[in-house]
Amino acid sequence: MRWKRSAAQLREVYGRAVGFLRSGSCVFIYLSADVQFSTVLLSILNVCKRRFAKLRFEDCFFKSADDCFRMTQWERLQQLDTVYSQRASDLYNGDEFPMEVRHYLAPWIEGQDWGRASRDSSQAAFLFQVLLENLDNQFSRFAQERDSFLLQRNFRRYKQNFQKYQEEPCTLADIINWFLVKEKEILNDAELAQQVQTLQVQPTAMELESQRQIEKSLKELKTKVEVMEHSIRCLEEQQDEFDFKYQTHRMDSCTEEEKKKQEEGLQKMLNALDKCRRSFLSEISVMLNAADVLRSALIDEELVDWKRRQQKSCIGAPDDTSLEHLEKWFTQIIECMFQLQKFLQKLDELVGKMTYENDPIPAQKAHLKSRVDTLLSHLIKSSFVVECQPFMPQGRGPLVLRTNVQFSVKVRLLYKVPELNHVMKVTVSVNNSASQQKGFRKFNVLGTLSKALNMAESMNGGMVADFRHLTLKDQKVGGGGKGINELSLSVTEELHRITFKTQFDYQGLSVPLETSTLPVVVISNSSQQQSAWASILWFNTLCSDPENIKFFETSPAATWPHFGEMLSWQFLSCGKRSLDNDQLETLAIKLFGKQQSYDNCKISWTKFSKENLPDTNFTLWVWMDGILNLVKLYLSDLWSDGSIMGFVSKGKERLLLKKKQNGTFLLRFSESIKDGGITFSWVQYANDGTPSVQTVKPFTSTDLKQIALPDILCNFRIMEAENIPVNPLCYLYPNTPKDQAFGKYYSEKTGEENPYLKYLKTKLVFVSKDRNGCSSVREGPESDLSTQDRDSPPLPDTSEDDMLLHGSEKSPMLSCSIIDNDLLNSILDSDGESIVPDAFTPSDPHISPPGHQLTFSESALLEALSPDMNVNEALQDFLNSPNILNDINLHMLQEKPDEFIIDSGFQEPWLSQHTTDPLNLIHLTKSSDLL
């Protein structure tokens, strides 16, 4: 809340601060926009600090007034769309961290550093006690509220469950931190989806013109309806006047001459009435003609375009799939048609009151009513659509479903009528058409199979039915076995559709409604996701007929423009940036060779997903999918900002780099790693000015899981002839300084940010040496050897066209790098360019007993590390000395801040093996940094 400037409230601030400090809680000071008042608040804090000497400044959290009203992470989760809110709901299905606790304690939970607490037992114990106090406080609040008995009971149980972490508060902190991290992932995914949605392709001039024409036609139609409403009232008044005079004429007794004059007047009135009736019927016919043109524009053009855009958006296209315009148009034209229906009913009433010979209403009304009903039926049937296609929260993308795994789907009626809110029941079924295909599998739908169309489940009040918990289950065939497909189609080439039905009954019109999803691929194992997604990509790229479930029987080939566009959408979805023309051309050359134009080049379904690429053991799609996963998981930022050139041939790579200054490098994807790999190459010049291009072995997801690519680029080193480590990477192609391009992504941690501050620290180093004695080193960020587990890099693929030197089995992550003699030989590629080696496989860290340590005085070590001394030479002499252990006493060492310690666990390799490599690592650290 915003504190006003009053002595009473300032005293309240002070009292609360003192109370918090006495209870060991943190103090929150909210800085007002009023500078003078903020100064008073800070003065109160200083008084508190003087009274409570143990108060640490970091325990006082300063927040601006705006922060007080900022939406919490939990509130943001609750406002997400169905797919992402369902993921958040599924996250809290278990009992590890109850959703109710997360909900009621959201501000406090999000205000704590649970990551730090998971590593700091004292901080974890403190937060554990505060959590129990907050549960007690919330329990007391529930006790004072009506209808909160169940919540009160639940919170008592939650506190009892949390008390099992009394001895392990760090475990609880780690659990809470895990949930918060997962929440952020859901929010990030939702934000990415929203960003992709906002990257909508601008409508063309033709599209804008068609929309303007529809708006204009609808406006004219509504105006005509308003005019006709006035006309029908005039017609009724005219008829009433004629009827009154006619009845008066019949009852009056008058002379023959007067009677003749009255009859002439009545005849004129009847002729005028007849003319008005015919004119009114003609106007209805004209309106129906205009409405039919609008119907065709809406159903045959706009709705078809929307369905095609929805198809493409399912495979990553940044197309606009919102339904607001269509809903407004359908609602307006249907309302106009219901008004015409009322006009025809009014004509029935007028005919019932008075008719005459050759009356046009009985002759024309039936035909006009039939036209109105036909238009209404067609419009209402077309207005029932699938707004959100079937989607699994943990799936690869829409339209890929897995048996026994929940998915969600949403249908919508584009005619927005509040009177039918919660009235129309929608039922769901599957395989109405697919079940007729011999050999296709059959499924049952489980879950909530009936829901009412309502306005509560839509952000903008549309008529929707949101099915969130549907599941497909295999239907047994014959003697219990599954259907055998006689069409030679694989499981991932079988297409199925989910169908929704409801009944529309309104204003005397009864219309059965039915709509179906786009074809879905149903899998039974997560290993089928990759090929299933390939089928979805291919179908929605090439086929606009959703009823063609036998598409893969005779699947057509894709032209390069369509195929390249589809691939570009995949990168836009994964990395927020599509492929540029150069990247597309590189891929086209890879597939079709050098051509003048690729517009007529075609690629078949078999070549895309079934046949291996030349000289590899994987298909084109498997290769592309591996790269896409690499971008999505580890390279999305670098890809989106254009730092990765990505697809470039080796020949073009060398051609580009040899024209640039020394140290210019580029990033490209490997062409021969199945699961995706990225490498970098740089140019360097010899003394005679001859350029050469060097390339590292590609980094895979296993490597990038351990070290981020920007950190690899930052710490990369080559050992020159004098054993001086030099980073050869200076400029990202074409001429951007490396730190300018990647500096914002470096994650080198310092001081308190490092969670393993108290452990010995080292850097992951990769060493090689060429024939000329030039070593190269690749470094990673500092890491804790005592606690951090690392996955071993995958064995090198013998078919790798970027094959590099392999590392030693001894990991350089240990205190000493043991370099194999074979490792000292160089490997040159066809251009005589040196290749930097692959990473060494890390081995388990060696930890020495705490009682076996070597002590050296600080002055001796400082002298040894003097700038005037050749460290490598001195260190090598020391390691090669046969009397290395003479005069050194091993004993239990007490911590002294003025001494340095070398852990003898890192000493064993030096004593047991002889190394010929001049580069060795030694780990020096103060004893205060050791646990």
UniProtKB/TrEMBL annotation:
SUPFAM superfamilies: p53-like transcription factors (SSF49417), SH2 domain (SSF55550), STAT (SSF47655), Transcription factor STAT-4 N-domain (SSF48092). GO terms for cellular component: cytoplasm; nucleus. It comes from the Eukaryota. One of its GO terms (molecular function) is DNA-binding transcription factor activity. Pfam families: SH2, STAT_alpha, STAT_bind, STAT_int, STAT_linker. Belongs to the transcription factor STAT family. It comes from Cirrhinus molitorella. GO terms for biological process: anatomical structure morphogenesis; cytokine-mediated signaling pathway; epithelium development; immune response. This is Signal transducer and activator of transcription.
